[in-house]
Amino acid sequence: MEKTLPEEVEVYRDRMWRREPEARVETAVEAEKLVEAAGFCAAMTDARRPGASLYVAVCGRRDAHMPRNVQKDPESSLTWVLKDEVMRRGRVYYAKLAKNRSTFVARRLVPHFNALWGVPRRTESRLLSADARAVLKVLRREWEMATCDLRMESKIAERARFTRALDELQRTLKVVPQEVLYEPWFTYIWTLGEGRFAEELSVKVRREEALREVARAFLNGAGMTLRGELSKVTGLSRPDAGKGNRALVEEGYAVRVAEGVYRLTDLDERLKQMGARET
């Protein structure tokens, strides 16, 4: 099977994921529009990983690579600033989600991500670690707290253990960063996911529907998916990613090109429309 995408599909992704110089992201509002259009978007990944990326959109080119010295790089610095501003604004969901990747999620997809990775309150004692439950207990009492204070109140002295607990709570959509402070020292302010996104996290979605809609969001921006690509981008297992893509085929939204390869049914028409707008 061909492992590279046709050029017209790359062009489609350039447009949808703002990988073009004239469409580069420069403000928080533009970053939010990218997330809304893509459905979900990585924060700091580069061309080596598929999917929409705020960093790549800031660069405005498909071959963007994160430099080793990010502190002195204007594009990575701007991405970091925009990430902080979008997080503060709270108009889209932001946290470390699957595979501990910093990810933005459009509000409409938060119920679907929660259906796939969230942990219902009734099963927290069984599915969350003791450290994660200790951190969550403190936040439910205090509502918001800086990292160092949260670690102290949860009585987790070992920094690595505390970080793992926070990552677990972000991954299960329990806790989100709502602010970052750089003075007098660098720290995040943490709060409950249900505090910022109460309506979205209260919506009940069937797992099958969630798989389909996450697959739809990715295919809408990607135009075509290669084998294993949806799994790599989202952290879904390959069988679950396949279920989502096959559901899109059943409803006529996508066509199966080869094993594990799916394409938008109306991709050619979309490409024609893009060409017409350019002329």
Mean pLDDT: 95
The largest β sheet comes out as:
3 strands, antiparallel
User: What percent of the residues sit in helical stretches (DSSP H or I)?
Assistant: 40-55%
What proportion strand? 5-15%
Contiguous uncertain segments of 5+ residues: none
The total of helices stands at 15
Q: Could you state the oligomeric state of the chains shown?
A: single chain
Order of helices and strands: HHEHHEEHHHEHHEEHHHEHHEEH
Radius of gyration: 19 Å
Structural class: alpha+beta
Shape verdict: globular
Biggest β-sheet: strands ordered side by side in the sheet: 1-3-2
Number of strands: 9
Q: Kindly report how far apart the N and C termini lie.
A: 34 Å
Short structural summary:
It contains 15 helices and nine strands. The chain has 279 residues and is α+β, with helices and mostly antiparallel strands.
Describe it for me?
The chain is an alpha+beta fold and 279 residues long. It has three domains: 1-105, no CATH class; 110-202, Arc Repressor Mutant, subunit A (Orthogonal Bundle); 206-279, Winged helix-like DNA-binding domain superfamily/Winged helix DNA-binding domain (Arc Repressor Mutant, subunit A, Orthogonal Bundle). The protein contains 15 helices and nine strands. The protein has helices at 7-16, 28-38, 54-59, 74-89, 110-117, 124-127, 130-142, 147-153, 159-171, 193-196, 198-202, 207-222, 229-234, 238-250, 267-278, and strands spanning 40-42, 93-96, 102-105, 144-146, 175-181, 187-192, 224-225, 254-258, 261-264. A three-stranded antiparallel beta sheet has the order 1-3-2. Strand 5 (175-181) and strand 6 (187-192) form a beta hairpin. Helix 7 crosses helix 9 and helix 12 packs across helix 14. The protein starts with 6 loop residues before the first helix and ends with a helix. The mean pLDDT is 95.
